[in-house]
Amino acid sequence: xxxxxxxxxxxxxxxxxxxxxxxxxxxxxxxxxxxxxxxxxxxxxxxxxxxxxxxxxxxxxxxxxxxxxxxxxxxxxxxxxxxxxxxxxxxxxxxxxxxxxxxxxxxxxxxxxxxxxxxxxxxxxxxxxx
Length: 130
What we know:
The strands form three sheets. A three-stranded antiparallel sheet has the order 3-4-5, with no helix packed on it. A two-stranded parallel sheet has the order 1-2. Helix 2 links the parallel strand 1 and strand 2 (45-47). It has a single domain (2-97), classed as FAD/NAD(P)-binding domain (3-Layer(bba) Sandwich). It has three helices and seven strands, in the order αβαββββαββ. By secondary structure, it is of the alpha+beta class. The chain is extended, with a radius of gyration of 20 Å. The model has no long low-confidence stretch (mean pLDDT 87).
């Protein structure tokens, strides 16, 4: 989508956001870093831990459940403020929305990936044989 908007000279008029229920963009740190860099260099916003809970197609509003941290009371013993976590619903307008269904890799792919992960060092992208 981002590439298409650039080709149509419409990217500078568009705000793109990615919301995911996950706490990470990708489970492998080297790939996550590359993905975050990709989003940042292309001025694309992303929000982690935002679960889509409602779509109002008539009003074009998407509602996400998330948690927010608030500063609580001062704890004399720990000499720090309490951290209070509250549930919050956030509603965002949209013009275009893409909602992929929950999905997972087939078992054979998961098993292969686990085997590969045990043999590889993702930080340097090197693998042991065997």
